[in-house]
Specification:
With 254 residues, the chain is of the alpha/beta class. The chain is built from nine helices and ten strands. The radius of gyration is 18 Å and the shape is globular.
């Protein structure tokens, strides 16, 4: 089945966020489907990070609604949304640099698989958390680096690890905020290949400035300008949209 023909896994309708007299996001509507990478692009200040923060529950909405698999989660706090299946990464890496790659993922898995009654078992010996951590490393291509020190990894490796930690919380939706920032060509290729694999089992929202990468991996692109959506369509339609050229893409993609 074409993913767009299935019900949206995450549906945002009329999302608005005001900071005093400033409207950072204005009536944004978008749908995230399993099997798709949905990219959100726009210049700095377009409202992309504010949008992702509202979807993840880190800041409240001023107006509009958010549904996850048909359930209204608009007023739920970020921890509740995470437990329901919304995972996100950040523009800055949030790993534990003094721990091993595996320990980083195991800690993320334990956060989602809390067992406060089991006070006698060492956290390191929790089979379920370790299994989930290994699965996340396998999914992100980091299985061979499981026992490496996280702080010694390359920039691209740390970004992969952050997504592995996100996967260890067992999300259905991945909200990725500029995961390609600062990467070289080889690291970008690895990340795009990973996203192509992850979209088979997740709905992926990708906020990104690298337009070449966006057009390589995205199934749908939403363009924001000054907090508003000016276009949302398949990549080829976005590439040929005159309003998008004027607002953002420029002559490089004509």
């Amino acid at each position: 089945m074409n993913p767009t023909h299935a019900p949206a896994l995450l549906q945002a309708s009329g999302l608005t966020r005001r900071f005093g007299g400033l409207t950072a996001v204005d009536k944004v509507t978008l749908s995230l489907h399993a099997g798709q990478v949905h990219a959100v692009i726009g210049t700095n200040g377009a409202g992309k990070s504010t949008l992702i923060n509202m979807l993840s529950g880190e800041i409240p909405v001023s107006a509009g609604s958010i549904q996850l698999a048909g359930e209204d989660i608009t007023r739920l706090p970020q921890p509740r949304r995470a437990r329901l299946g919304i995972g996100r990464s950040y523009q800055r890496t949030t790993i534990f640099p003094t721990f091993s790659v595996l320990e980083n993922c195991r800690l993320a898995a334990q956060a989602a698989l809390q067992r406060p009654w089991n006070i006698w078992e060492s956290a390191r010996e929790c089979a379920a958390s370790n299994d989930i951590a290994h699965e996340a490393l396998e999914a992100t291509g980091l299985a061979d680096a499981a026992h490496a020190n996280a702080g010694s990894m390359s920039h691209g490796g740390k970004r992969q690890l952050e997504i592995a930690m996100c996967l260890a919380t067992r999300p259905r939706v991945l909200l990725l905020d500029e995961p390609l920032a600062g990467m070289g060509a080889e690291e970008t290729d690895r990340m795009l290949n990973m996203l192509a694999r992850l979209k088979q089992t997740h709905a992926v929202l990708l906020v990104e400035h690298d337009m070449d990468a966006v057009f390589r991996v995205a199934d749908r692109i939403t363009v924001m300008v000054n907090g508003e959506v000016i276009a949302s369509d398949a990549p080829e339609q976005i590439r040929n949209n005159p309003a998008v050229h004027v607002a953002y893409l420029g002559d490089a993609h004509t």
